[in-house]
Amino acid sequence: MSPDDPFAPHPAPPAVAPHPVRTLTDPADRRRAFDLFLGTLHHGPITDDAWEAHGQAPDEHWLGVADPSGAVVGSAYSFPTRLTLPGGARVPVAAVSGVGVRPDRTRAGRLTALMRAQLTAARDRGDVAAVLRASEAGIYGRYGYGVASRADQVRVTAGAAWRPEAPAGGTVRMLDPDEATGLLPGLQERLAADRPGGMTRSARWWRRALRPAGPPAGEYKGVAVHTGTDGVDDGFVVWGVAEGDLATGGTDEVRVQQLWAAGPAATAGLWRFLTGLDLAGAVTSWARPLDEDLDLVLADSRAHRVTGRGDDLWLRLLDPDAALRARAWGPGGPVVLRVHDAFLGDTGTWRLADGAAETAAGTDPDLECAVDALAAAFLGDRSPSSLVAAGRWRELTPGARARADALFAVPGPAPWCGTFF
Ligand SMILES: CC(C)(COP(=O)(O)OP(=O)(O)OC[C@H]1O[C@@H](n2cnc3c(N)ncnc32)[C@H](O)[C@@H]1OP(=O)(O)O)[C@@H](O)C(=O)NCCC(=O)NCCS
Fold first, then answer.
1. What region holds the N-acetyltransferase domain (predicted)?
2. Residue 210: pLDDT band by 50, 70, 90 thresholds?
3. Distance, CA 2 to ligand 1 centroid (Å)?
4. Which of 37, 102, 106 to mutate to test the pocket of ligand 1 (most atoms within 8 A of CB)?
5. What average pLDDT does the segment 7-21 reach?
6. Could you give the CA distance from residue 283 to residue 301 in angstroms, rounded to a whole number?
């Protein structure tokens, strides 16, 4: 395949990977692989306490590529999760992390071998897709991953006033670590069911998030839950604090690590609480959904500043047929869409119409795209029109893009993952 033409016919993948990939079943190998991964991110090895505290998860799938000496020089693992699609269906997905190749062994195809083994194994297990958070945007597109949701980095002035008509929210109560451990996983799982891109989290993930092993002494972690006026818990926030330098008159910065809310009232209730915290100059977050719209409810709209926008969840469809059938569709159609998967050597054609997707092999397509570019529209982040305009999708029947826009647009929250893994 020409790298310049994602629509050209593609060859079958090589039968034998140039670097043999093996499954790491021995916990000692997994720990060595995890340390290798940390090293590729320029971090030191994990401590005994942290490794113990995070625990072992039998359903994690660890892969490694070894040198002739047997030393693992590249690693990747995944854990099972369920991903919410537009319309609310949840499908089984492999959440990928721990990807790294030892710096003295890079650029020789080891990641490519790991990706091929990992994606094939996940597809064979029945995963509809794989998802990850990327360290760099240039790595994963070649393997069929595309940016399926984006997030805003925000800064809100502490003490900001709210518009009189803004939702008041309910009540907020703080939780101690044991209460948080008991309450948050179930609440997040419920809230993530309502947003495309929301994913379920493992017990191990929560252990890491709520009880980081070996934090610096005195590290602060606040946890609070929001209860709506109907008496039901409908949101929560976890935050830390970056202390300001008193010598220079600096103020503390409240850093939101997680904030999930069922709707505008819970969102407002939690942000009112955060911006009302004493001794803070600002509340910041590294990744908020694009539809949070705090500027609409604050008296001074500039008290909410978007300081950056970037990719949130990377999605790699492994079973496009199951994925296209599982998500909800808007009205109209028909549109025949052809999807090319150069990395795994597949091509498929689907007819989208009247709220459903069905296979349409042998039918001439109205639109075509590569599997990574399908990901960009799949959860609702980008419209087919914008992808055609960017050259990422190709329109073969004039006007098809507008019909596809209507089909891909489903009312509901903007896609957002909100889980770092
Ligand atoms: C990213 C990383 C895993 C790549 O491993 P690798 O074994 O060098 O990858 P490969 O040799 O299989 O590279 C395959 C292709 O991707 C390209 N590529 C690899 N890393 C890239 C990067 N960071 N940016 C852009 N392209 C990259 C290679 O040039 C190669 O391109 P080609 O097929 O056109 O020749 C490795 O560089 C690494 O460990 N980086 C630091 C840790 C990290 O970022 N991990 C990812 C966490 S999400």
1. 19-169
2. confident
3. 19
4. 106
5. 72
6. 15
Ligand 1: atom nearest CA of 111 is 12
Domains of the chain: 21-150 (3.40.630.30), 151-311 (3.40.630.30), 320-408 (3.30.1050.10)
Side chain identity at residue 230, one-letter code: D
Q: Whose CA is nearest to atom 19 of ligand 1?
A: 139
Dist CA 129 CA 380 (whole Å): 16
Among 9-23, 76-90, 144-158, the range scoring the smallest mean pLDDT is: 9-23
- Find the residues whose C-beta lies inside 6 A of ligand 1: 40-41, 99-101, 106-112, 134-136, 138-139, 142
The answer to whether the predicted template modeling score (pTM) of the entire model surpasses 0.85 is yes
Question: Which of helix, strand or coil describes residue 133?
Answer: coil
Residue written as token pair 């490794």: 51
Is 298 annotated to bind a ligand? Reply is no
The 10s digit of each residue's pLDDT in 213-266 is 445 556 788 999 999 999 999 999 999 999 888 777 778 999 999 999 999 999
Question: What are the phi and psi torsion angles at 190 (to 5°)?
Answer: -70, -45
